[in-house]
Amino acid sequence: MARHLITSAIPYINGIKHLGNLVGSQLPADLYARYLRARGHEVMFICATDEHGTPAELAAAKAGKPVADYCAEMHEVQARIARGFRLSFDHFGRSSSAENRALTQHFAKRLAEEGLIREVTEKQMYSVADGRFLPDRYIEGTCPNCGYDSARGDQCDNCTKQLDPVDLIEPRSVISGSTDLEMRETKHLFLCQSAMKDKLAAWIDSKTDWPVLTTSIARKWLFDGDGLQDRGITRDLSWGVPAQFDGAPWAGMDGKVFYVWFDAPIEYIAATQEWAAATGGDWARWWRTDKGADDVTYTQFMGKDNVPFHTLSFPATILGSAEPWKLVDYIKSFNYLNYDGGQFSTSRGRGVFMDQALEILPADYWRWWLLSHAPENSDAEFTWENFQTSVNKDLADVLGNFVSRVTKFCRSKFGEALPAGGVTGPREAELMAELETRIRTYEGLMEAMEVRKAAAELRAIWVAGNEYLQAAAPWSTFKTDPETAAAQVRLALNLVRVYAVLSAPFIPDAAAAMLAAMGTEDRSWPEDIGAALAVLPEGHAFTTPDVLFRKIADEEREEWQRRFAGRRD
RNA sequence: GGGCCUGUAGCUCAAUGGUCAGAGCAGGGCGCUCAUAACGCCUUGGUUGGGGGUUCGAGUCCCUCCGGGCCUACCA
């Protein structure tokens, strides 16, 4: 049994995430974590909220709350929703934790000692009215190229030209609207990523089995133009990990904090330390290669927008520290999920957000659809029609109805216990041969994190049960040969347990309901299908479950379609 | 502008350069009656975006054109 460290990109604290965010990192990471646990591996599954940065400060100000309070509240909200989706984190941390503060400062210090930090003095836009420096995109004005009056300081949304805030005509603060802006000198720390370019390139080159999406984005940043650039890792903000601290190898950084993208990935480690503090566990054996982590397999999950930071910046931090930290082994990245012909939009309330999704349907419905349509090779699209037909067909008709027909048939003919007697024949052998092949295929796909294909294979495994029932037709056999019907029904009821075990990574609640109905807590993986189909013995009592998955009606679908078209309350 | 990804059946997607390009859904037909009007079997449906090239052989490799998407370093 191996040890697997799994991290999901950490969601930003500012608001509730939509389904596209969920399917891009947390959900597939959970699928993989659940699968590996089911196979008996030791798993550490880490996620957290990313709490620093300008948007958090502004959201808190808008809510009229101190930023620390705002983050604490939003963390609880996100944690509750994550539980609702059954995301099985071993720890859901906070990047604002004391652990992350200490570790972030530690890494910065180590990098400086290795000569990988340099100080840069530059001029940035300062808003006198807001009393703060503003990131480029928090400045708006008229585009000098096309005249668009709401061009952002970094880029014009209308003509897509890249801009510099000083180019804008009549620049104003997005926050206050104030035009009292000036360029002020400010000093920042830069991470010398360029010095590690060759090392990083060699490392990326060695990852021949990574998704093309991952490596192509990394290569683009490594080799485009002048190559990998040094990156500012501090900001003029108050909310964050202080850049000036006791023992810091620099001075004059008072009032500045580390850039969120510097401290956010470090939180993967810090969150494991938080876990250790809470449980008494040993975090070092997951992260320090000198303390047992050299036999850990580390897999990261993220949307494509996160790839540069995970392939370059964070590895630069890890490698640059010259300390024995565990480096990622595999980066599974995802494209975007679009919503009904356009993008999900937080600001315009377009699309389904995580809290809303759970209000209208149980988690399993969303988990199944999202995972079976995961945007692995290209951007994917959510439509209500597709969601309705997929869920109704796959979950209600193929799996749910299988459980229903088997349990109800047994109850009416034999009672609510596995009937005794009879022997199986070639038909059962045929089924087992097919299951054997398909389960092994399913395992391979899950190990390779081929999410869509694994879902398709799982569905085929469900279908095999219906095919078998149709061919064996115990309702016919029962009339002439009840013993044989008993053996057939016994096998089919055992199949329900096997389906629960195989399906649990995708639909954990339904799987639990199936196991409960079968009166068993035996979650043993079907390594040998013959043995797996004999786990529940003759005479074993079961209960006939309620409908596992209700169907989505046309009227509901139409209502939801209208409700989520835009303008969130 | 540059780079990357993508275009395959009505829809969503598969296919190490190698049988007749396959699945699911939708459509059509038949069967079954245990089941959530569910299930099973059969079946219709394709100039693989257009054009050119390499090859014994191209959905796959090369060139070009057209469409869609993403990234382009101070949102995270």
UniProtKB/TrEMBL annotation:
Its cofactor is Zn(2+). It comes from the Bacteria. Its main location: cytoplasm. Residues 418-569 form the Methionyl-tRNA synthetase anticodon-binding domain. Its EC number is 6.1.1.10. It holds the Pfam family Anticodon_3. GO terms for biological process: methionyl-tRNA aminoacylation. A motif ('HIGH' region) lies at residues 11-21. ATP binds at T346. SUPFAM superfamilies: Anticodon-binding domain of a subclass of class I aminoacyl-tRNA synthetases, Methionyl-tRNA synthetase (MetRS), Zn-domain, Nucleotidylyl transferase. It is found in: Cytoplasm. Binds 1 zinc ion per subunit. One of its GO terms (molecular function) is methionine-tRNA ligase activity. InterPro entries: Anticodon_Met, Met-tRNA_ligase_1, Met-tRNA_synth, Methionyl/Leucyl_tRNA_Synth, MetRS_core, MetRS_Zn, Rossmann-like_a/b/a_fold, tRNAsynth_Ia_anticodon-bd. It catalyses: tRNA(Met) + L-methionine + ATP = L-methionyl-tRNA(Met) + AMP + diphosphate. Monomer. HAMAP family: Met_tRNA_synth_type1 (MF_00098). This is Methionine--tRNA ligase.
